[in-house]
Design goal:
Order of helices and strands: EEEHEHEHEHEEHHHEHHH
Helix content: 25-40%
Number of helices: 10
Distance between the termini: 32 Å
Radius of gyration: 17 Å
Oligomer: single chain
Shape: globular
Largest sheet: 7 strands, mixed
Number of strands: 9
Strand order of the largest sheet: 5-4-1-6-8-7-9
Structural class: alpha/beta
């Protein structure tokens, strides 16, 4: 069973334009996400799915320079972009990652992939069904047949949010949640605003090369000043970029 990681990336963020190519700890954010996907056990290929908008030429060029496959499709119909990725790079399931999550843990990506491989009758496996991780560390996997079935009839919200039509219809799609302990879903390490970037810069410096979700949580629990830097930021919707 082949699993591809598809990194959803674009530059048209309304709150922090070009965020996926911003420098964080001396490296572009997109590089960090791609490296995490590459390091995850059980991932067969890593792709970057961006749009055909001229503003995303830089994303496509940078991804190609990193040596990963690039898929370009609709800017707003993100679901179609994922189906296109499966068309152009055939696989049985895709792990959906977003390029505004620079501290992704390869072990979590591998855990979700391994969970599905052990229970492939499920259409959707994710850490988001019961949130126990900080925002920005979540991982979702969807089977290609389920995405194609969703693509055939999804409209509006479900085309932007990609997987919402799967977990929103458990009577039609079989869903399986992955949780961690202790829960840390009150924390946030995603990149949406300048204040987020400021907080992440402090966090990366404090991590001092350590990786993994446990290290991230440990540092944030011991450094409330880092948490406070972006505590006021409202979680964006995917439609906002």
């Amino acid at each position: 069973m082949r699993i591809n990681a598809v990194v959803q990336a674009r530059t048209g963020s309304t709150r922090l334009p070009g965020k996926v190519l911003r420098e964080l700890g001396g490296r572009p954010v997109l590089d960090r996400v791609v490296d995490a996907a590459r390091a995850a056990h059980g991932i067969d290929d890593v792709l970057v799915a961006t749009s055909t908008a001229a503003g995303d030429d830089a994303v496509a060029e940078h991804a190609a320079a990193l040596g990963v496959g690039v898929v370009r499709g609709s800017e707003d119909d993100v679901l179609s972009r994922f189906v296109q990725a499966a068309d152009e790079h055939p696989c049985d399931a895709v792990v959906r990652l977003t390029a505004d999550c620079p501290l992704l843990d390869p072990d979590l990506v591998g855990l979700v992939a391994a969970t599905w491989r052990s229970a492939p009758e499920h259409d959707y496996v994710a850490t988001t069904l019961v949130r126990t991780l900080p925002r920005g560390l979540d991982v979702e996997l969807a089977t290609v047949p389920a995405l194609r079935a969703l693509d055939a009839g999804a409209t509006g919200y479900d085309r932007v949010h990609v997987t919402s039509g799967l977990y929103g219809d458990p009577g039609r799609f079989r869903c399986l949640g992955v949780v961690v302990a202790p829960a840390a879903d009150d924390l946030r390490v995603t990149l949406d605003t300048p204040d987020d970037l400021h907080a992440l810069q402090g966090l990366v410096e404090a991590l001092d090369g350590r990786t993994g979700w446990r290290s991230v949580v440990s540092v944030l629990r011991s450094r409330p000043d880092l948490v406070e830097r972006n505590a006021h930021v409202r979680q964006k919707s995917l439609a906002e970029g």
